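Many introductory courses stop at the sequence. We go one step further.
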Amino acid sequence: MAKKKKDGERASFLFDDDAGRDEETIDLFGSDEDTPAEPDEDIEPEEPDAEAEESAEAPAPSVAPEKARSKDKPSETPQFHFDRYGRRVGKKKARYGKRKDAPKATTTVVRNETEAKREYDAARARSEARAKKRAGEAAKQAALKKEERRRRRQRSASTMILGALALGMLLGMTWFVTRLSKINVPHVPEGYTTQRIIELSGLESKLKKRSALLISTRDVEKHIRETDPYLDATVRYAFPSTITITVSKREEAACVRWGPQNEYLAIIDENGTVLNAAAESANGLLIADGMNISSAVNGARLGDSSDIQVAALVRLLTKLKELGLLERTPRINRIDMTELMQIRMYVEGSPYTIEVGDTSNLETKLMLLQKHWAEIMDEASSFIRQGYSTATIYLYSKGGVNISPYEAGHVIATPEPSTSPSDSPNGESGEQPQASPGEQPAETPDNEVYTPAPQVTPMPHQDDPFTG
């Protein structure tokens, strides 16, 4: 039985007893010693091959003459050699070993590439198997995820459908429960009826047809104000299907001249809301002049929210109504709002002018006027009886209220002093000239609060450093 040789080792063969020989190792290439081998009698001679003949005919170089063999005499030992593929060629009777004249040969066994290729193919097959396994696992995970997404979409669609059905049922029940069925008007102003107020609100067409939850109460209030500015409405929703409208009637407070040339009249209430933007007459109301208003809309506030002129007028009207000065006789029939620092009021049927000044301390000024109204009117009328053409009532004097028989800003001219008695109209030096009854100030009653200045009428805002 032949043993496999390792790399770099000599090839050797091992024969067993069954082959008829003892176990021994035969060196195919011969030993280093030149010892001839005994012929093998058991080996029958074979016919020589062509290659063997050629090798036999080739002369062996550098062979000793004494050891040269005769060509005619057959060799005692079988002569053969191995080809490049490891096959034995030549006569079987040839002597084992190498020729004496052959150079010492060493055999280098090159490992066949087939084994490396088999290992490479096996490693590649294992890698492909692992890649295939990973691809299979990835495909399986992708399939699981896809199935999970599909189930999730189905659940989402089912949830949305059920939610839509539930929402529809809820909306249907809500609409059925909250459907507008009653409009309540607890108080009806004079001159109106409940049916008229419902018509003004615009809710009559929505009865039994619309949910009360979807009705805007602010829109209803705005619709009532725009339809009838004299009504101030407050709309509230009462669960489940009732709307309550609380209505109050606005009172006319003043008439305002407005327009590019103050050619229009607008009736407003004490809060500045326009009740009639195109009134034909003032209807006996207090008239406000000097307002810079370019437009007026029914049911809306007069002017802009930042208009200080309208704000001052509203504040003045509110205080006059609170103190009841609009119902006093003689009645205040006109207010001049041209200068906010010099507001003036005029009394109907009398040449009286009430100087209010600015809106600072307005409540204190009007309270003094309300408290001493009768005394002030009597004293002003006394000046008219004495022959003066007007009387000016100052509400911003230091002493409280001051009354003058002259217009605001009037100054009495004082004559220059004279040294000659003849220069004096009365023949006495130091005396003032005798004035006519229309110019001579009359005697005033013994009242410290309402004593007018004897010589000079107080100027408006005489203590104001910005006056001038």
